[in-house]
Amino acid sequence: xxxxTSKSPSNCGHTGVEQDFDISNWDVRExxxxxxxxxxxxxxxSLLAIAHLERRTLRFSELRRLIDGISQRMLTxxxxxxxxxxxxxxxxxxxxxxxxxxxxxxxxxxxxxTIRSLVDWTEGHQQEIARARAxxxxxxxxxxxxxx
Length: 148
What we know:
With 148 residues, the protein is mostly helical.
């Protein structure tokens, strides 16, 4: 079992959309797994694996070729975590050599929809973000410049 995870989810009360909630509770509620789940589904490798599994089933080697820079070990760990969380389904076929395929579960597909919305937002605002970064960097440079 991964360090910092429990075998069964605990009830951490409502973080619900329908009511106000305190974001600081995500880190302090005893046994609440919201932060852990957010960390898992928002990490770089999970996002890429979920994106590549949209609407298709892939073998491990296909996923590894598609996800630039991922090691075999990291892909194995990522897929196991996504499978454990119920987002990816792993199917092993009893052939020689063994054939293993991965696909999104229905819950994983709903997560992909959410990820797609985030990507769409990012694409729609990337120029504004680039301008804000340039302005910030310029201010930082001015503040760090030695006064003569």
